[in-house]
């Protein structure tokens, strides 16, 4: 386990360095002065530009420039937004929890629906139920997320009036920013309308989360179906059958647990896919997250925000992958290597 941990830590450090190199190189690829692209100070005077050149070591070679940039990133200094002239780190701290909250709810929905459907399809392998589930999952995966989001707003918000079409919570509720996660901040608040605000926030998140969850749900259906079919074909399942265990006992006591372990390693990849889908969905539903902020930065040509936002999102997604690997290795000793699992 120690060797597994050291390998993952070294991989994490190497990947972080590569991501910072990519982000640093974007300042030279974007149009304009690279020192302004790094700092975001559009209206800097000549004396301020001289200070910035010294601040980012632009009087020295490219290696020292990168080391200076890396030092600023580690200190949380990501520059100023060209559009708002506010610190990018403050904007990311404010917006990233909204995207994380939306993606986590969508992931829970996708897993709660996709995994049981996949298990049912595997149990009914090559039967009508299996074919129907696979056909529906293929259809759901083929639907474009922007079209599905607009259709959901038209049907559930405008047509039926069941759910809100935009925003994170109604303007009637004033919730103090504590963690950035809306549900946690509502529970921590002293507002007398706490439970009404919680219901309102839940109503706002259902529609965008369900739209985001459609594509990952279909992937979880196929992953869980393949994992369950593989488990049902193993020797210990045949041994359980020979002992006289009923089919329900085999499924719930043995097959489900081992099939879930095989699915866990794919959760990190699906979370990265959720972040990508959420960027489009946040624009459609006016969700105040980092995805919508990044797309608006692209339209506004806010180069400092683009490179810093991509760096933060990439690091966050990779951290999720690393955590998923650790969880999978903790549940499945065979994943730690032949020396520790065989």
Would you kindly provide a written description of the structure presented here, covering whatever features stand out?
- There is one protein chain.
- This protein is an all-alpha fold and about 350 residues long.
- It is built from 15 helices and no strands.
- Helix 6 crosses helix 9, helix 7 crosses helix 12 and helix 9 crosses helix 11.
- The C terminus is likely disordered.
Concise account of the structure shown:
With 342 residues, the chain is mostly helical.
List key phrases describing it.
15 helices; mainly alpha; 342 residues
Tell how many strands the DSSP assignment holds. 0
Helix content: over 70%
End-to-end gap: 13 Å
Number of helices, counting only DSSP H or I runs of 4 residues or more: 15
H/E series: HHHHHHHHHHHHHHH
**Shape call:** globular
Record the SSE blueprint.
Blueprint: H1 2-29, H2 34-39, H3 46-55, H4 62-74, H5 88-123, H6 128-142, H7 145-159, H8 182-188, H9 194-232, H10 235-242, H11 247-264, H12 267-284, H13 290-299, H14 303-331, H15 338-341
Helix pairs in contact: 1-14, 5-6, 5-9, 5-12, 6-9, 7-9, 7-12, 8-9, 9-11, 9-12, 12-13, 12-14, 13-14
